[in-house]
Amino acid sequence: MAQTGDWKQTARSNPIRRVQLFQGCTEEYSEIMDHIDSLRYYDQPDYDKIFNLLRRSLSSCQLAERPYDWVDPRWPNVQIKRA
């Protein structure tokens, strides 16, 4: 587990490691990491931005969107497209 954390930390400062970390992933994953890294401790993440980046990634890979395990079905502003 510590190795994974070390990898993620190194990828933030080493461009070669970053490419290796996101190998096989769409560019949106790197954008999500950039957004998270831009936050300070008490900042709230832009969840809409992250959600839309995940959707764009699915679309670019021509994958169907499925309900996420972290989405509460009672949330009115989150519409999951059912396949």
List keywords for this structure.
83 residues, mainly alpha, 4 helices, globular
Describe the structure in your own words.
- This protein is mainly alpha-helical.
- The chain has one domain.
- It has 4 helices and no strands.
- Helix 1 packs across helix 2 and helix 3 packs antiparallel against helix 4.
- The longest helix has 14 residues.
- The mean pLDDT is 83.
Structure in a nutshell:
This protein has helices at 2-13, 15-21, 27-38, 47-60. Helices cover 54% and strands 0% of the residues.
Low-confidence stretches: none
The number of E-state strands comes to: 0
Overall, the morphology is globular
Mean pLDDT: 83
* Total tally of structural domains: 1
Could you spell the SSE succession in H and E letters?
A: HHHH
Biggest sheet layout: none
Strand content: under 5%
Kindly provide the radius of gyration, computed on alpha-carbon positions and rounded to a whole number of angstroms: 15 Å
* Derived structural class: mainly alpha
Q: Span from first to last CA?
A: 35 Å
Give the fraction of residues assigned to helices.
Answer: 40-55%
Number of helices: 4
Blueprint of the fold:
Elements: H1 2-13, H2 15-21, H3 27-38, H4 47-60
Helix pairs in contact: 1-2, 3-4
